[in-house]
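Appendix B: complex inputs.
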Amino acid sequence: MGSVRTAVVGVGQTRHVAARHDVSMAGLVREAAREALDDAGMDFGDVDAVVIGKAPDMFEGVVMPELYLADALGATGKPMLRVHTAGSVGGSTAIVAAKLVMAGIHERVLTVAFEKQSESNATWGLTVEMPFSAPLVAGAGGYFAPLIRAYIRRSGAPSHIGHLVAVKDRRNALRNPKAHLHLPDIDLKAVEESFLLWEPLRYLDTCPSSDGAMALVLGSEDVAATVPGPVAWIHGTAMRSEPTMFAGRDQVNPRAGRECAADVYAQAGVTDPRRDFDCAEVYVPFSWYEPMWLENLGFCAQGEGWKLTESGATALDGDIPWNPSGGVLSSNPIGASGMIRFGEAAQQVRGRAGDCQVPLHTGRALGHAYGGGSQFFSMWVVGAELPA
Amino acid sequence: MRDVAVIGFAQVISARERERNEVELIIPAVRGALADAGIARSEVDFTISGSCDYLSGGPFTFVSGLDAAGAWPPVKESHVEMDAAWALYEAWVAIQTGDVDSALIYGFGKSSLGDLHEIMTLQTDPYTVAPLWPSMVDLAALQASVFLAATGRSDAELAAVAARSRRAALANPYAVAAEDVAEDALLARPVTHAPLRDADIAPITDGAAAMIIAVRDVAERHCERPAYLRGIEHRVDPQGLGLRDLTTSTSATLAAHAAGVADGPVEVAELHAQFSHEELILREALGLGDDVEVNPSGGALGANPVMATGLIRIGEVATRIRSGAVRRGVAHAAQGPCLQQNLVCVLEADR
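Resulting structure:
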């Protein structure tokens, strides 16, 4: 952590839908940025630097699209960075932006993450045969399903646990007007009867493909004192990566995820995440990843994650709500999904989460993102109070 | 700000690499930079790369690149879809937060796998410009025409830049376009994209480059003469060619001013000019006098491993400072059509 205390002083996001035919990519990112700046009581001219994040360029078919987007985001004459760390990118982008303030380089930084999946086809984009490499041709679900089966075998979890998460997150999304999926009739039976994609994942166990953007305005302590609304203070940030081709990896419970969590908890003084957080916004693109990440992030002992899910502890009225916004299972503009987690965590501690708001006791929340084949992690802890 | 210096650098360059993939190009570059710095991989706190998926034609190029750099036990790591000069900038920021004291930066790409000049068309506005398929050379030629017309210069000045670069490249073991050629001989060659000739256009190059930077106390422990980053700044222009003055590079001027180029004498400058006219534009934009030695390595006209070319400019200046050849130099990186985004770095020997 740097020497300048830093806060999220503005949050904005688009509504997330399958295809935003009404806007260009520039229109999409500008919509989120405009809302975040309005929230912060600022205009584009007030911003010192712009940090853009998104997942692979092939998802839209534009090479380094931030170059074309610079004008729409008011970056002319300013520093602009483009981060790409796979699915964790939304979180990583927010962290890079935060570092610019923490390091004392800038006072006000606008950061935007987006994906406009309707411009291309993500599964195609993920399965291109690479020169000199063995083709995977599996898409994300095909990659993660065997890891989920390994988790089930390890933990002895009953088969309905994933479906519980699928229902819970979609019910939460009914309270979130910006969520992509609004499925008022969803129940356990509907998930169980949806068609099988990659065993054990059924159609309703998986995230949608969305168009959407998320924007945050980050400010120094001096800036935070001048903005109109409440702010979310950054209590810790961490990123960790591990290799892809390495037999020593545990892809079900990755060491990079555990160490990333340990790092960010230590910065924030968190010793018992289940007790110390009011809620967590965690990257759960396939339902089973809730119990898996509950264990990886230390919310329970190994093998106990599914029991926490089954007990209802992670529901909106549970003692540690996970993904009160509806999560990635309800909105998935891939490159933005991580920043949505980070931003929704900030909205919770600001008391700005609307109908998704959880009661604030500790005033702290976790934002989490992961990417690739579970080898890239980014996390932050935000709080209503100034960090110690 | 904490003092940060370049303490290690290495590059692996090939005209059209047939044998090794990107991972196999990165491994010797990373090992070379670590050896140059005399530092162990495990002693480096932060890791970051710059690459472009479209060069290889598949997503997540950087993922296997990380395997080459080494990431076990897990590392603090990031990646920019930008020239690795901007990865250096992010590493510098990470060090400024106090969270880390040293960093490994690498950039890589194999431009030979596809048609680089057409791939870069996809950097343009996807709704109004890209459908017209202007290649990056077409756009550069447009800028060169506007520049020559506005300044009254002739293509002989372009040929002078190209000839000097190709001759300088003879002394650079990593250059792929080197020849002992005179300006007049180049002028006799055909114009391929008016007013540009082939020698005015950076060659297709594959390669990787890696760099180690560290804060002062680590740098002094590992390096007799570290090359300190006295200023590192970057700025962007709007992309639309009708939205900016193509006869100059406003963002390069802003970055040079912020980085403090004019705060001391500039002995050497390495400019990321992929076309001859870009060097002329950049000399003016950065305020470099006629006495400044520009691109002694041959520059991007000598070797252009896209996504590493900018980082190599910084490495070339750092190497000259570390050897004692110069005390103060300027390195520049660019990306985007017609010098849209520019990074300027001032490097100095200590005191």
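Chain B has 13 helices and twelve strands.
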